[in-house]
Design brief:
The chain contains eight helices and eight strands; from the N terminus they run αββαααβββαβββααα. It has 312 residues and is α/β, with parallel strands linked by helices. The protein has one domain.
């Protein structure tokens, strides 16, 4: 599937971070096979906190905390496994690292769909960092439209809905980073989500489940060894006809004011020298000026979130 992508074109035409200012580090958590990559400022000792840069995920954890009831953790884990499977297969296929017989249907659906939109992949899983060194992240997809010489930032989603502020806010941050790094390139303010999903099974609810019988609190991650992990569900059943989603969802983040939210949030990080989740938390406890400005931005974020979630 190499003809549907040109990653060399992306590397030659886009700047993803300033190599004179930052460098990529990584570590592999215990009991994990996946390395975590992050940026640090050049010129600082590894233990110097001043060399840190807050991640997109770190900022999002304040704007939109992700909390799951322990009895629903199994659903999240299963969804993550499926999403990872689709994402990995797509990456291997686009880079020509697997044969056609190993390319799953979801990947074929995505590629065919993007071809109709005359888009090719020019980046996948690229680490990007704002030139002001106030935030970084890992952008999942960057597509290129040759006729208009335009780059589109996006993501692949296998979830049941894409009407989630967190998805579009994340893409807004990546758009702002790439625009700042590439002022002479046409980085579109229209974000894209490649929504692809094949649902073959559905979960069966345990009618005897009562959450009042469990002392677990929301926010506590349950593991497969916890009794609560499978308490709400008794298994899955095959759907007679699989349900498929195969849509390119577009949203103009400039018109929807999400980019304005992102710009104000990045300015907040810059003005108050927020370089980690720790410093953000400290400011929330000790700086009245920061608290006041952050509250204004949080209320606006929540307003935008409600508007998106209320869409049909």
């Amino acid at each position: 599937m190499e003809k549907y992508s040109d990653f060399q074109f992306g590397k030659e035409n886009l700047i993803f971070y300033d190599k004179n200012k930052v460098e990529i580090h990584s570590f592999t958590p215990e009991n994990s096979k996946r390395a975590i990559r992050f940026f640090r400022k050049i010129g600082f000792d590894n233990w110097d906190k001043a060399g840190k840069i807050i991640s997109r995920y770190g900022l999002s954890s304040f704007r939109d905390p992700f909390e799951v009831e322990p009895w629903n953790q199994i659903l999240i884990d299963e969804a993550n496994k499926y999403g990872t499977l689709v994402d990995k297969n797509k990456e291997l296929a686009l880079k020509g690292l697997i044969t056609d017989d190993l390319v799953i249907k979801e990947t074929r659906m995505s590629v065919a769909k993007m071809m109709k939109h005359e888009l090719i992949w020019v980046a996948r899983g690229e680490m990007i960092c704002h030139p002001d060194l106030n935030i970084y992240g890992e952008v999942d997809e960057v597509w290129y439209h040759k006729k208009t010489d335009t780059y589109f930032v996006g993501d692949t989603k296998t979830s049941s809905s894409v009407n989630k502020m967190s998805y579009w806010y994340q893409l807004g941050i990546y758009i702002e980073i790439l625009k700042a790094l590439n002022p002479n390139k046409n980085i579109s303010s229209i974000a894209l989500i490649d929504w692809v999903k094949i649902k073959k099974e559905k979960w069966i609810y345990n009618r005897n489940f009562n959450e009042k019988n469990w002392s677990y609190t929301i926010g506590k991650n349950a593991t497969p060894l916890d009794p609560v992990y499978k308490a709400k569900w008794i298994g899955k059943e095959i759907l007679p006809i699989p349900e498929e989603k195969n849509i390119v969802v577009k949203r103009n983040l400039q018109k929807s004011n999400i980019l304005e939210q992102v710009k104000e949030d990045l300015l907040l990080l810059k003005n108050f020298e927020i370089n980690s989740v720790e410093t953000f938390s400290i400011k929330l406890q000790n700086s009245e000026v920061f608290i006041r400005q952050n509250n204004i931005l949080q209320k606006n974020y929540d307003k935008l979130k409600k508007e998106i979630e209320n869409e049909a």
